[in-house]
Amino acid sequence: MSRQPADTNPEKATREKKRVALSSLIAAVFLTVSKLLVGILTGSLGILSEALHSALDFVAAGITWIAVRLSDRPADRDHHFGHGKIENLSALIESLLLLLTCIWIIYEALTRLISGETHIQVTIWSYIVVIASIIIDISRSRALMRVAKKHNSQALEADALHFSTDILSSSVVLLGLICANFGIFMADSIAGLIVAILVIYVSFRLGRRAINVLLDRVPEETYRKIKSLMDEFPDIEQYHDLKVRAAGAEIFAEMNIHVNPEWNIRQSHDIASRIEDRIRAEVSRCHVHVHIEPQEKPSNNPAV
User: Fold this and answer.
1) d(CA 130, CA 37)
2) 259 domain-assigned
3) Do 137 and 177 share a domain, yes or no?
4) 3-42: per-residue pLDDT in tens?
5) Cβ distance 19 to 155 under 8 Å?
6) Would residue 116 count as lying in a domain?
7) Where are the beta strands (DSSP E) in the chain?
8) 42-46, 111-115, 175-179, 195-199: segment of lowest average pLDDT
9) Cα–Cα distances in Å, from 61 out to 16, 214, 250?
10) pLDDT in tens, 119-169
11) The domain spanning residue 246 has which CATH number?
12) Residue 266 belongs to domain spanning
């Protein structure tokens, strides 16, 4: 996901994240209730699967809302690196909830297809709730993704992917309803299976990214960017042990640099400060620590 420059005002950023998360929570409640009522009245597995999907989206949106409220809290005595990984944990929980959705949808769809009990009642309300869902999902996914990119929020990005998946799955359900309207009732159960496949794909994608951050896997794009920035400092002899990790929207980087052994403490400190300021200017919400070492002998080896 490409990143936009993050807001430099943490309080303003937190308010914006809370606002968009709360609006998504309200949207999830509306979609869940409307789909559940129409699904029960019509017996449509496609709509019922969408209702369950939206119900878990409601739970996920609630988790996201709580996560963005907590993740921007500053570091304290018990959390020296802040609370940013709450967002990543939230994204992992959302992916597991999506997988639970798949289990029920696949079981119910296969049961109906095998038994042949695929008849459903299609009404005007079936079309209204699905089309309204698509419109709301498009609006919510765009708003969430915009704020997620702006503030590098994995929790909001996970919520945006939830609503994006709903757009695809609702479109599949709409196609199933159209087919059922012409007597092809098994299309509704098949639509439910396609929804499950889409949900599995998104769950895997979300879960893998969340686990990578929770296990401190190197964020490759940020790592390469910092390495390229280091090439702009010919004053240092070399650098090594560059380490980068992410925690929610926060980035933590550290490295060792070798400087001219004839430099005094102030000169060495100045170059370290310039490096830290340069990285922080290019990498949003980055905490940089540079350790200084004297260069004992000339080295022709490239920086690592």
Assistant:
1) 12
2) yes
3) yes
4) 444 445 566 777 787 788 888 888 888 888 888 888 787 7
5) no
6) yes
7) 238-247, 250-259, 286-294
8) 42-46
9) 15, 20, 21
10) 566 678 778 888 888 888 888 888 888 888 777 776 787 778 777 777 777
11) 3.30.70.1350
12) 220-294
